[in-house]
Amino acid sequence: MIINTNKLVDITKATVDITDGRPYIYFLFNITDKTPRYKRENNKYVIDSKGKFVIDEGFDLFKKRTRVLKYIGQTLGRSIGRILIHYYFDNNDLRNKKIQHGTGPVFTHYRLMKIPRFIYDTVRLHHETLLVRKYLPEINKSSSKIFSDVQKMIILNSGGKIKISDIIYPYKLHARDIWLAAKAFKNEDWEWVKQNCAVSKQYKHLTIADLKSGRYSFGENFWMGKVRGKTSGQKRGKKKQFSRWFRACVLFKHNKQLEAKRSFQKKIIMLRNVYGDKNFDKQLTLFHEKKSNS
User: Fold this and answer.
1) How many domains does the chain have?
2) HSE of 54 in the Cβ direction (CA atoms, 13 Å)?
3) Are 54 and 37 in contact (CB under 8 A)?
4) Are the beta carbons of 89 and 103 closer than 8 angstroms?
5) Which of 22, 109, 219, 260 could pair with 29 in a Cys bridge, judged by C-beta atoms 3.0 to 4.6 Å apart?
6) Taking 90 as the threshold, does the pLDDT of residue 208 lie above it?
């Protein structure tokens, strides 16, 4: 990724218009005095201490390179507030359930992307997912599952024939699929959910009144339900936030995603047979045993 520093905001010189509440996608960068600068000359980028460009070389399997790009996220548009949460985040904040993730004070610049269609959170979620998978897949470990030991082994043993992009966990949703999901959520269209997502048989017979009652807490439900005698963070029977429902119902359970996941798993098995190591499983077991004992 080629980054034009003239388009970034230095966090020590940031100004903000608090009346501009437009939602946005944001990028966090760490650029220091040691970060190489480049200028463009004859359609090539050459090192120049006064150059305005810096280069992020992308994901490094062995984590030997220092990434310039640190984080990509999206927000409803509370001006600079989301950036401040990231900056003052540290590992201790993991105990605070209100802060689910962050980067800590490891960035020096940021850039906001504000365009009209971002008023729809479905669009922001879609573009954020695409950008993260392309530039920072390692920060999305919970959903992408692309950096297992098996995948690393395949990349190393393939001699460059297999790249990260070849074995990345599938994301087959189109912007229109997300728009339809948002429409179904807004209209409380339970039939759309049952037709397009993997709803368990034990729930398919439920009516809207059943779903709204608060007795059921499964992810495809539009409303909050009871969990182990307590409410799952909000009042029972209250409608979920779209992003929460989308992640549980559509992102992992849409028919397109499930089919792509099955194909992906078959592909990994095939690649493992081609580029695998007979002693790999044994070595991996010994490694984890040694790590746990230490």
Assistant:
1) 2
2) 19
3) yes
4) yes
5) 109
6) yes
The rounded mean pLDDT for the chain is: 79
One-character DSSP codes across 165-227: GGSSPP----HHHHHHHHHHHHHT-HHHHHHHB---TTTTT--HHHHHTT----TT-SB--EE
Task: Tell me how far the alpha carbon of residue 267 is from its chain's centroid.
Answer: 23
Residue-range definition of the domain harbouring residue 59: 2-139
Copy the structure tokens of residue 267.
């592909």
Pairing of strands 2-4, 53-55: antiparallel
Q: Does residue 20 fall inside a structural domain?
A: yes
Please report the DSSP string for 113-147 in residue order.
Answer: E--GGGGSHHHHHHHHHHHHHHH-GGG-HHHH---
Q: Are residues 122 and 183 in the same domain?
A: no
Query: Both tokens of residue 19?
Result: 């009346």
- 37 within a domain of the structure (yes/no): yes
Residue 107 in 3-state DSSP? Answer: coil
Residues 6+ apart with CB under 8 A from 178: 122, 123, 125, 126, 246, 250
pTM (two decimals):
0.63
- Which two three-digit tokens encode residue 103? 């980067």
What's the DSSP call for residue 53? E
pLDDT tens column, 166-184: 777 778 888 888 889 988 9
pLDDT at residue 143, as a whole number: 46
Rounded (5°) CA angle 134-136-140: 105
Q: Is residue 60 part of a domain?
A: yes
Alpha-carbon distance values, 235 to 10, 212, 229 (Å): 41, 11, 13
